[in-house]
Amino acid sequence: MNGKLNGKVALISGSGRGIGRAVALKLAGEGARLVVNDLERDTAEQVVAEIKAGGGEAVSCWGNVTAPDFAERFVKTAVDTYQGLDIIVNNAGYTWDNVIQKMTDEQWYAMLDCHLTAPFRILRAAQPTIRALVKQESEAGIESYRKVVNISSIAGLGGNAGQANYAAAKAGVTGLTKALSKEWGRLRVNVNTVAFGLIKTRLTEATADANAQIQVEGRDIKVGVNPELMKAMEAQIPLGRGGTPEEAAGAVYLFCIPESNYISGQTVVCGGGFSLS
Ligand SMILES: NC(=O)c1ccc[n+]([C@@H]2O[C@H](COP(=O)([O-])OP(=O)(O)OC[C@H]3O[C@@H](n4cnc5c(N)ncnc54)[C@H](O)[C@@H]3O)[C@@H](O)[C@H]2O)c1
Questions:
Q1: 146-150, 204-208, 227-231: which has the minimum mean pLDDT?
Q2: Among 74, 76, 106, 77, which Cα is nearest to 90's?
């Protein structure tokens, strides 16, 4: 593999499907070595196999990002396998909507745990490794930049009815990004957020089946957007359509390459020109 990210070690949560998978394939195609995560072993290992079949390097670290020991395991997999850690993409997530009067504490905390606490723990677990690598590099006269890309949503910037839990968690992601960009500048880590608009994945895919569900932690959670609503949403997007996972991956990629070495603490909206704010 020969590309812009040759030899870089990248951790991507929720990279078994959708946007995370597209990011994993894009970074691997540019020479990065990947730690692929998803809830189920098969989903993660399928992407690992795909990357290897394309001549890249990848290893799986499957499991729920909300598990208390996950962050340490994720970082350790990168260090044990590749002796490095250069890029972290906090992407794993799902939605669990309801209007506030019907939203349970369980629903509220599930979103905060997955979208905000899990990225916090992963970044906290990565700090000692990053600090040690930076020290080694400084002693060897090497100056290298590391990248954190936290995934948010236009719902976290502008709010969205029925998503008080998700919007609050995703708004928290931008705060986490800003704080860490200030804390980690001296370690030469660029910390940025990509907030997506409507991207066509399992999360949003138009479905006539009102009962389409996914399983997270033993809970059945409704996914998909009703086709009529999807059409109405797409009509409001200046580019006239929802984005593809590959287009979404492109926005993340911009924050992973050397050309963005002097950009930190920022949020880019990848939404075809649409914004809720
Ligand atoms: N698709 C959109 O329109 C859209 C818009 C805004 C933000 N986002 C965000 O983008 C990210 C990716 O979403 P997507 O559209 O690709 O969805 P997706 O359902 O296609 O893929 C998400 C992947 O994350 C995994 N995942 C979910 N919870 C997890 C957990 N607790 N631990 C480990 N893995 C977990 C899922 O199994 C799935 O494979 C999410 O953070 C989502 O909130 C998506």
A1: 204-208
A2: 74
Q: Is 166 among the catalytic positions?
A: yes
Which residue's alpha carbon is nearest to atom 2 within ligand 1? 199
Name beta bridge partners: 225.
206
The catalytically annotated residue of 82, 94, 166, 253 is 166
How does DSSP classify residue 204?
T
Percent pLDDT > 90 in the chain is 87
Tell me whether residue 128 is exposed, middle or buried, using C-beta atoms within 10 angstroms of its C-beta: 0 to 12, 13 to 18, 19 or more: exposed
How many other CB atoms are found less than 10 A from the CB of residue 157? 20
Compute CA distances 223 → 13, 93, 220, whole Å: 19, 12, 10
Q: Which atom of ligand 1 is nearest to the CA of 199?
A: 3
Residue 262 buriedness (CB in 10 A; 0-12 / 13-18 / 19+): exposed
Contact at 8 Å (CB) between 226 and 154? no
For residue 74, the CA-to-ligand 1 centroid distance in Å is 17
CA distances from 21 to 53, 78, 118 (A): 15, 17, 19
Give the model confidence (pLDDT) of 4-33 as tens digits: 999 999 999 999 999 999 999 999 999 999
pLDDT in tens, 102-127: 999 999 999 999 999 999 999 999 99
